[in-house]
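Protocol step 4 of 5: obtain the predicted structure for the target chain.
Materials: sequence only (see below). No template structures provided, no constraints applied. The aim of this step is simply to have a reference model before the mutagenesis design in step 5. Sequence pasted as it appears in the construct record:
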Amino acid sequence: MPPIYIAYLNRLDIEELRITDDEILSAIEASLASQGRGETVIEPRMHLEPGVANGHFNVLRGAIREPIDSAGVKVVGDFVDNYKLGFPSELAILALFDPRTGAPKAILDASGITDMRTGAVTAIGAKHLARKNSKVLGHIGARGTAYWNVRLLNHLFDFDEIRVHSRREESRNAFADGLSRDLGKKVVATADWRSCVEGADIVVEASRLSEPTPLLKTSWIKPGAFVVPYGTMSAIELSLTDIMAKLVVDDWGQCKGGKFGSLRAHVEAGKLSEATLHAELGQIVAGLKPGRQNDAETNLLWHRGLSLSDIALGHAMLEKSKRLGIGQQLRFA
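Step 4 output (structure tokens):
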């Protein structure tokens, strides 16, 4: 048997790549278009709950044909109390494989990939479903994927006003201060949900609740806004979907099943179904279904997280690492 080598990128390697906002968005948008055209395979995520801590593992699986030509599996832990130990709430590994032989090709630290690709899907959803002149962002949540949501949305919209909120005062203040430095503009930490989201053009709900609690009120949503609720536990009212012109998801197969997710109750109540679903985001990106068609639409995107996004961004990082000579080669066989 010929030797098999695995490319290995740890967290320090990925930081050294200094992947740009445009590189992230380009990789993810291309993968969404591939999904929309039916050039991918995606399996609904699976969950593993060890039962020894406040958290669980997500296992995501998929494959993308040319030009990426990779199958991938990502295992990501989601443990909400990790901050008490100084760890991020999400730690992950992405493994990439040759889809023709099954030979492993790469192992990457995927904690940063998870955050980046989630923020990119949020931003690309806004690109197609929010008003082009959106100038006020209200973001709930300050950990995990929150930073890249705000950063990549601002990259596309250059907001006049950014508001953020999270349960712990020290967390939301530190988040706002860090974003202000990185974005070069004022970011306001609000003391409550209402002052964060009411009247905002784009609303992102990425809270980390221990159980479903309808903290985001439908009456606070501005007509014509774009709303992205994707917390593991729902923070929205059942009535939220009633005001939407378009309901969009990243992958209906994984959104319609499982025990977790912001719109799980809406699926169970029949408010989000194959009949009420407008499109998967990939269909819109590929030009097969329309995105926003007028400024009056109030639209919603629910994304559970795509293995395809992990694979696409992991592939982009591998290609850049080859050009820059970053990372290691491990002998597998």
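Step 4 remarks: The first strand starts at residue 5 and ends at 9. The chain is about 30% helix and 25% strand.
Proceed to step 5.
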